[in-house]
Amino acid sequence: MSGRIAIALARKGQAKAQHRPNANSVKRARTATNIALMRVLIVEDKVKLASQLWRALRGEGMAADVAVTGEDALWMADATNYDAVVLDVMLPGIDGFEAVRRLRANGQWVPVLMLTALSSVEDRVAGLDGGADDYLTKPFELQELTARMRALVRRDPIERPTVLQVGPLRLDPASRQVWRNGEEIELAEKPFTLLETFMRRPGPHPQPLRAARIRLGPRL
Length: 220
Known about the structure:
This protein is of the alpha/beta class and 220 residues long.
C-alpha cells in the first residue's frame, strides 16, 4: 500500500469517528423526537390562558388540543390517545378533581398535570390522591410547565388504583370514604389517615387489616 493511500484511509477513518454520534447525543435526539411526537390535551376554560398554553406547547414541538369543560375532556381523552393532559381544577360542570377521578376509574392512565389557583395543602393532596401525577399552582412560568410536561412523559406509565382495597376494606383517598363489605364506615381524620397508611403498606393482605383493627377497634 502506498504512503498516499494509507494517509487517505487514515484521514477517512478520522472523519468517520468525528461524525459518529455518541450514546448521549443519540439519547438526546431520541428524547427530542419523542417530545416532538407528543399530543397533549389542555383543559382550561380561560381563553387567554388556554391560548398561552397552546402556543407554549406548540413551541416545544408538541401537538395540542383544547377542551373548556371537564365533560369535554373526558370524551376527548376517550377518543384520542393523548400522551399527557394539562388539567385546570376550576372548570364549569365537573371540576378537575372529578375529571381526573373519572379518567382513572375508566382505566385511562395518561399523565395528568393539574393547574389551580388553590394553594392549600388539602387541595394539592386531593388532586394527587384523585389520580393526578403532578400539581402546578397559578401563577406559574410557562417554562416550568413545559419542563414538568417533559418530565411526565419520560416516566413509564404505571397503573395505580385510586381506591385501595385490602380484604373486605375499601378506601377512597380522594373522597375520604371507607367501606367494609360494601357498608360505609365513618372515620375521623386521624383514624382515616392511619388506616390509609396501613393499607398502603406492602405485604400480605391480613397484616394491614389486623393492625388497623388493633388501633381502630371492632368496626373494621
